[in-house]
Records
---
Amino acid sequence: MSDLFSLNRAARLVGATRADLQKKIQSGEMFSFDGKVAIAELLLCYPDAQLEDTAEFKRVTQIKERAFGKRVFERALPDAEVLAARITELSKTLAHSQAQLEQFNALLERLWDKFGEMEGQCHGEARTKMEGLKCWIKQEVAAAMEPGFSNPLAIKDGILSVMTAQVTLLPSQQDFLVEGRDTLLEAAMRAGLSLNYGCSGGNCGLCKGRVVSGQVKKTRHHDFTLSETEKEQGIILMCSNTAVSDITLEASVTGGVQDIPFQQIAATVKAKAMLTAEVMLLHLQTPRSQRLRFLAGQKVSLRVGHSFTAELPIASCPCDDRNLLFHVRRQTGNLFSDYVFERLKTGEVVEVEGPQGEFILHEKSGRPLYFLAFDGGFAPIKSLVEHAMSLEVETIHLHWIASAPEQLYLPNVGRAWGDALDDFHYSEHTTGFDLRVSNAKREAQLLHHLQEMAGTDPAMTLGDVYLAGPEAAIGVAEKFFLSRGMPKTRVFVEAVR
C-alpha cells in the first residue's frame, strides 16, 4: 500500500475536502509530491483523524447493521466478484508483509550468530562495546516489534481500498473514485468529469478507453464489438466496465461545448409537479440506450403535441444524464406552455433536441464562484451549482434575485445547500417589480440592489460571476460588474425567458 495519496483519496481519509488540502499546500502547511501527499503529512495536519470519522467506516457499519433497505444495501457494496478481487489483493499485500517479517526475523538470527563469532574474537574494551551494541539492538528491535501507534489513516485506506477503486486519467492527470456498482463512466460523471461517450448503453462504442495499468471487470453486456487488436491493447468500454483495483486509464475529457454532439432523443414524461401556481417542474426520462450528453448550464429544445416547441435550460446536473429536469413557466396563450400545463400526461413522448449554449462552468479558474439568478434564471444556475459541488469547488455564493417572493419557487434547495456545505453562501432578494420589463427607474432600483450586494461582499469582483435571467435584468447586471473593472472573461451571462 503506497504512502502517497492523491488529493481525492487523502481528502476522503481525513474527512476534509480537496479544496481544504489545496489550501494547506498553497499556504505551506502541507507538502505535496507530484500532486500527491504523504501519509505523514496528513497526520501532521490532521492529528485528530480517527477511524470512526471516515465515511467508509460509517457506511460499512450501516451496511453491517442493515440500516438501509435491500436495494440500498446492494447499491452501496461493489459487485461480489469485484469485492472478492479487492480483498484478495489486500490479502496478497498482507502475505507479502508477513513474508518480509519472516525474512527480517531470519536476518536477526543470522546477525546474532555473527555477533557470537565476533564476540569470541574481541577482548577488553572492544568486547564491552560489542555487548553494549547487542543490548542496544535488542532494545530497538523489541521496541519496533511492539504494536505501538495504530495509524488510523492506514486503517481507513484499507477500508477505502475495499469499498472503492481510484482511477487516474491520462493525459489529463485527473482522478476519481469508483464506488459501489458504478461503471467507470458513471463514477466519472458523479465526480463532475465529462468523458467522451454516446449512448452509455454499450451500443455506440464512443466511450472507449485504454487500461494502462490495473484490473477492470466487465459488469454489463454490450452489443458493440471490440476487435481482437483493441482487446490486446487494453481497450474497453467505460460504460460496461468497473475498476477492480486502482487503475490508470487513457481517456479523453470533454474540453468544451464543441466536443458535445447534437442529439435528438424521444424522452418520456416521468413526472409533473407544481412548484408554484405559475411554475411547473417537468421531469423527463430518456431511454436507457440513448441518454442526453450535455454540459451544466446548457439548454435544449423541447417539442410536445404535434409541433409546440420551446427552448429551455436544463435544471439538473449532467451527472444524471437520463433524468432531465425543467422549470416551465405558465404563459397564457403560449401554445407550448398551455399544452404542458393542461394536456401533457405522464408517459407521453417529448422530443428533445440539443444541447445548445455556451453558458457553462469554467472549471480551471480557481476563483470563488458567484451565481446570480434572476427569476427563472435559477434553472441553468441550479445545474451549474450542482456541477460545481460535484467538483468540490472551494467557495460558492448564490444570490436569487426575484421580482416578487412567489418567483422564489425553490427556496429550500438553496437553503439546504447552505446548511450542508461550509463554504456555500445563499441569499434571497426581491425587487418589487417585474424584472422582465426595464425602464430608467427600475434600472436604477436594480443597480441599487446590486450595489448593496457588492458592498456587503467586496470580494465579489475578484471572483467569477454567472448571471442568468430575463434579458433586461442581466443586461443591467452585466454592465454593473463590467463598470467595476471586471473583465468580460469573468462575467458570464445567459438570457432566460
---
Amino acid sequence: MAKTIALITGGYSGEAVISYQSAATIEKHVDREKWNCYTIDITTKGWFYTTDSGEKINVDKNDFSITVNNKKICFDAVLVGLHGTPGEDGKLQGYFDCLNIPYTSCDAATSALTFNKRYTVAVAAFAGMAVAKSLHLFKNGNIGAAEILAALTLPVFVKPNNGGSSIGMSKVSEAGDLQASLDKAFKEDDQVLVEEFIKGREFTIGVFKTKGKVVALPITEIITKKDFFDYEAKYLGASEEITPANVAESIAEKVRLAAITAYALFNCKGIVRIDFIYDETSKQPFLLEINTVPGQTEASLVPQQVAKMGWTLQQFYTALIEECFNK
C-alpha cells in the first residue's frame, strides 16, 4: 500500500521563490505508484494544501494533518523541499521530531548548525578540515570596517551568516567598498560572515545516503561569468557548470573524501550539497559551506549530478524517501 508523503515548500524568507521551483521539479518526478504526495505550502500567512479545484485547506498543526472531503489525511513522512527558514534551519525538523514523523533532510541539530555558516566552518576547522580565515559579526556589534581590514586580507566575501542562494552576498576587493557590503548583508540577517578569498577552482558535490550507504555524486566545477557565484550566476545562467568536473582523479578523490568526511562529521542525513574551493598552492579543498536542502530546480546542481550518475530523479527521490524510514 502506497505511503502518504507531504512535500513541504514555501518558507518565511526570500528563498521561498526557489522553494517553489524546487517543489515543481520534485512533484514532477515523485513515483505516484509508491507515494501519495501532497504539497504543503508553509508561509507566514499559514500552512496550506491546495486542492486541484484551488481550494486552500489549512494544515492542522497539532498533528500535521489535513482534512480533504471530510477525510483526515496524516503523513507517513515529509519530503523537504523548503529552502531557508523554517525548513533548512532545524525549526520544522524539531517539530516533526516531536510528532514522530520521519523526514528526508538532516535532523534539527545538524540543520541548525549548518545553517550558520560560521559555526559550520568552526566545527570543520576543529576537526582538521581546511577552511578560510573569517570573522563573525553581529548587528549593532562593536567591530567595524577598520577592525575587519586589520584582521583579514582583501579580497573578502561578505555574506549573511544564515541563509542561502547567495542572497545579500558581495565580494569586496577595495577597502572603500566594505561598509556598503556589510550594510547589504545586514539587511538579510542579524549576523554576517566576512571571509578571506581563496583563489582556486570551485567545486560542489552532492552526498546522500541510500540503503545505509553514503554515496558521493559526480563533482561539478563552477566557472562563473560574474566575479563570484552569486544569485544571478546560480539561477539566471551567468555561470558554466561542468558535470562531471574535468579534473584530475587525484584532485577529485580529495574533494570526494572531504565531502564524505564532512557528511559523517556533521551527522548529515538525506541529500546535502557541499561547496569547496580547491587551493592549488596547498593542494587541498577548503570547505565553504554545507547546504542541507540543496536546490532541485531545473537549473540546480544536484539534479545535474544525479543524471550524470545514471539515475533518474524518480529513482533519486524514491531513495531519499525510503532512507528516511531507516532510523
